């Protein structure tokens, strides 16, 4: 039975929606860390608690809604292409998890087996390899093992299948104890978002209009960034944004908004301040628990800011809620944020409207595809 890890934007349980979901398959040998990845990303499980997770005994499907609806399949270590229960051609992406301390022979053989089977079923499947549990090794050993795993997979593929160069195979070094996991999974999700160029375009316009050197559109709960602007992603900046978002997730419920009596539309926030422009431009929603005569109450889109470098010129990290599940995190020069805050918030309003239109189009397409299929 499918268990919903997150609700959809409209407050309707994602499990009950009749929509077509993009499928991602999670593979790997026993105790490689597949279930830990899902639990840490989507269930807020503390990394130290992953040690106590039971091994996965059967294929389990998890739904997750971001800008598009996803369905992630967590499989046991002994699964094969024949016992999976669904053709490999139904999956857009296959993530294979390898324990960095493993002896490599068994996981590499299993990975090659699935690569060959999947490519024969469909040439549109993306293969991603997570060399996981990187925190277990020292820095030099970590990168040496990563290099060896990469070479062994490529060599084995070349021996088994001469056409292996046609397979889109990407390798990532990951761990549940830092933000490398969020970064790697974000890059995987980017490849299945057809509207990604439009989201990136909105972020580029926002950065240009506000003198912003870097901006991300984050999924709040999982801390995956579903899009970013055209400038390169700096690991330090990404980690800083993830830590800030984690802090807001931890303390935000203490400041939950009372602007609406509907708990499904209430949003968490470290502040209750909303600019006048934002208040007048935001959509309204009626509470299902209120009498028909009750006036509609506006959805609150809170914001927050933290000064990173107090000295001039200084940098400020800002947070703006875009939808109940997405937030804009942007680095701004402190002088711009303090002296031209109205302009920044005005651009946030238009960015929010653009993102909501893209999400509505994606949702309509998912429903239409479900009816066709």
From TrEMBL:
<comment type="function">
    <text>GTPase involved in activation of the TORC1 signaling pathway, which promotes growth and represses autophagy in nutrient-rich conditions.</text>
</comment>
<dbReference type="GO" id="GO:0005525">
    <property type="term" value="F:GTP binding"/>
</dbReference>
<dbReference type="InterPro" id="IPR027417">
    <property type="entry name" value="P-loop_NTPase"/>
</dbReference>
<feature type="compositionally biased region" description="Low complexity">
    <location>
        <begin position="274"/>
        <end position="291"/>
    </location>
</feature>
<keyword id="KW-0342">GTP-binding</keyword>
<feature type="region of interest" description="Disordered">
    <location>
        <begin position="265"/>
        <end position="296"/>
    </location>
</feature>
<protein>
    <recommendedName>
        <fullName>GTP-binding protein</fullName>
    </recommendedName>
</protein>
<dbReference type="GO" id="GO:1904263">
    <property type="term" value="P:positive regulation of TORC1 signaling"/>
</dbReference>
<dbReference type="GO" id="GO:0003924">
    <property type="term" value="F:GTPase activity"/>
</dbReference>
<dbReference type="GO" id="GO:0009267">
    <property type="term" value="P:cellular response to starvation"/>
</dbReference>
<dbReference type="GO" id="GO:0010507">
    <property type="term" value="P:negative regulation of autophagy"/>
</dbReference>
<dbReference type="GO" id="GO:0000329">
    <property type="term" value="C:fungal-type vacuole membrane"/>
</dbReference>
<keyword id="KW-0547">Nucleotide-binding</keyword>
<comment type="similarity">
    <text>Belongs to the GTR/RAG GTP-binding protein family.</text>
</comment>
<dbReference type="GO" id="GO:1990131">
    <property type="term" value="C:Gtr1-Gtr2 GTPase complex"/>
</dbReference>
<dbReference type="InterPro" id="IPR006762">
    <property type="entry name" value="Gtr1_RagA"/>
</dbReference>
<comment type="subunit">
    <text>Component of the GSE complex.</text>
</comment>
<dbReference type="Pfam" id="PF04670">
    <property type="entry name" value="Gtr1_RagA"/>
</dbReference>
<dbReference type="GO" id="GO:0005634">
    <property type="term" value="C:nucleus"/>
</dbReference>
